Amino acid sequence: MNELLGNRIKTLRTAKNYTQEQVADQINMSRQRYARIECGTNSISLDTLVKVAEMLDVTVGDITKVLDETPAIAYRTGEEGASTEKIFEMLDVFYANKHMYMKLRQRNRE
């Protein structure tokens, strides 16, 4: 999940011709930490995700839609050694998206 989000953020950043340093400065983060988000080493918090989306002039949904585009067929055919590990990964993505949705929904109500 982290790698998918990181790649999507990197794609959006490069499309805007921003450097990692520029984005990191705008969201009050070190370039090294931001780079780890882009490469998928570090996870991204909802607050940081919102800041990155604002910086890149996109919505949070524009960034997270990459999670919905992952082909589900691999899980059903047993490719990639799916089994229990992939099921837990799918559950983690589901609950992360649900948590993110609930936080965004609560922010919109305030």
Series of H and E elements: HHHHHHH
Quick one: biggest sheet? none
The CATH topology is given as 434 Repressor (Amino-terminal Domain)
CATH class placement: Mainly Alpha
End-to-end CA span: 29 Å
CATH superfamily: lambda repressor-like DNA-binding domains
The tally of beta strands, per DSSP, is 0
Give the integer mean of the pLDDT values. Answer: 82
Radius of gyration: 15 Å
User: In the residues, how many domains can be counted?
Assistant: 1
Helical content (DSSP H or I, runs of 4+): over 70%
Helix-strand makeup class: mainly alpha
* Fraction in beta strands: under 5%
**Number of distinct helices:** 7
* Shape label: globular
Q: Please name the CATH architecture.
A: Orthogonal Bundle
The residue ranges in which pLDDT falls below 50 over 5 or more consecutive positions are none
